[in-house]
Specification:
The chain folds into 3 domains: 114 residues, Orthogonal Bundle (Helix Hairpins); 112 residues, Urease metallochaperone UreE, N-terminal domain (HSP40/DNAj peptide-binding domain, Sandwich); 90 residues, HSP40/DNAj peptide-binding domain (Sandwich). The strands form 4 sheets. It has a 4-stranded mixed sheet with strand order 6-7-11-10. A 3-stranded mixed sheet has the order 1-5-4. Helix 3 runs antiparallel to helix 4. The protein contains 9 helices and 11 strands. This is DnaJ protein ERDJ3B. InterPro entries: DnaJ-B11-like, DnaJ_C, DnaJ_domain, DnaJ_domain_CS, HSP40/DnaJ_pept-bd, J_dom_sf. It is found in: Endoplasmic reticulum.
Length: 343
């Protein structure tokens, strides 16, 4: 039975939104906050990311400039309650349609947002905020993970702040005032003033952390989870940082964006040529054959068969060293034939 025209229309719209949503960027992921994040958490996340990827700190880095634009675009939407509500329900396409109906556009002036948040003039450094300790975890990733990209899950236990009975002094600050001690004479006084807050205690909590290993990440690069480090009373938690380390591999050795491998061949193969392939990290085969004489320890380059460059479509190179396996002994007849052939 055919569906009524109105129902078909709404089904088509829903399907269109689903297709668009797959291709759209996730503003919450861009700012590295959960979907239900508070306005304050969104502001803090924006501050950290905008300072990190600002063009002044990354001159000539196109990827950083692109990230900076995405960060500002995401903050423009998530910091506006109306836009955020539309985005949560209908995604980026819904925002564009709303802007079109309102006669406006979805364009974002990055400098306007940054200036309104940090002030005008040259880029200012992040203001001093009391923070808990950062937690740095050395994360060993396989070459396969770093070649193809991967997702790892790590169990994490940390301290969390929980309410406790009683009150405690908090948000303490120094207040300066003047007291008259005689005709025309004043004494400056400084007094610490504190508010009363709910008491807190530390408890332990465990959960899985999902870490995205991006193609081509280098040793020392970090995957950062902001404010997921150690908490501190009356301050912001530190950050949780997973620092990438490449695990040893049985077939390849990595140097930057290049890979190195060793292929063993016989003396006969070294002299007359050979047919040979090696299996790459994603299981595709690389032809390392030769029709010429191959010297012991000779190294040949295979362009574009190395590691992918991080945040790029390019790849490094593969360098293959040939290890010629010499015979351990020869008979007199073999020696004579070799002399006869080689002169």
């Amino acid at each position: 039975m055919a569906l009524p025209r109105t129902k078909r229309f709404f089904l088509l719209c829903a399907f269109s939104y689903a297709i668009v949503a797959i291709a759209e960027k996730n503003y919450y992921e861009i700012l590295q906050v959960p979907k239900g994040a508070s306005d304050e958490l969104i502001k803090r996340a924006y501050r950290k990311l905008a300072l990190k990827y600002h063009p002044d700190k990354n001159p000539g880095n196109e990827e950083a400039n692109k990230r900076f634009a995405d960060i500002n675009n995401a903050y423009e939407v998530l910091s506006d309650s109306e836009k955020r509500s539309i985005y949560d329900r209908y995604g980026e396409e819904g925002l564009k349609q709303h802007a079109a109906r309102a006669g406006g556009g979805m364009g974002v002036n990055m400098q306007d947002i940054f200036s309104s948040f940090f002030g005008g003039g040259p880029m200012e450094e992040e203001e001093r905020i009391v923070k808990g300790d950062d937690v740095i975890v050395e994360l060993e990733a396989t070459l396969e993970d770093l070649y193809m990209g991967s997702t790892l899950k790590v169990w994490r236990e940390k301290n969390i702040l929980k309410p406790a009975p009683g009150k405690r002094p908090c948000k303490c600050r120094n207040e300066v005032y003047h007291r008259q001690i005689g005709p025309g004479m004043f004494q400056q006084m400084t007094e610490q003033v504190c508010e009363q807050c709910q008491n807190v205690k530390f408890g332990r909590e465990g959960f899985n952390v999902t870490i995205d290993i991006e193609k081509g990440m280098q040793d020392g690069q970090e995957v950062v989870f902001y404010e997921d480090g150690e908490p501190i009373v009356d301050g912001e938690p530190g950050d949780l940082k997973f620092r990438i380390r490449t695990a040893p591999h049985d077939r390849f050795r990595r140097e930057g964006d290049d890979l190195h491998a060793t292929v063993t061949i016989t003396l006969v193969q070294a002299l007359v040529g050979f047919e040979k392939t090696i299996k790459h990290l994603d299981d595709h085969l690389v032809n390392v054959s030769s029709k010429d004489i191959t010297k012991h320890k000779e190294v040949r380059k295979f362009k574009g068969e190395g590691m992918p460059l991080h945040s790029s479509k390019k790849k490094g190179d593969l360098y293959v060293a040939y290890d010629v396996l010499f015979p351990t002994s020869l008979t007199e007849d073999q020696k004579s034939k070799i002399k006869e052939v080689l002169g």
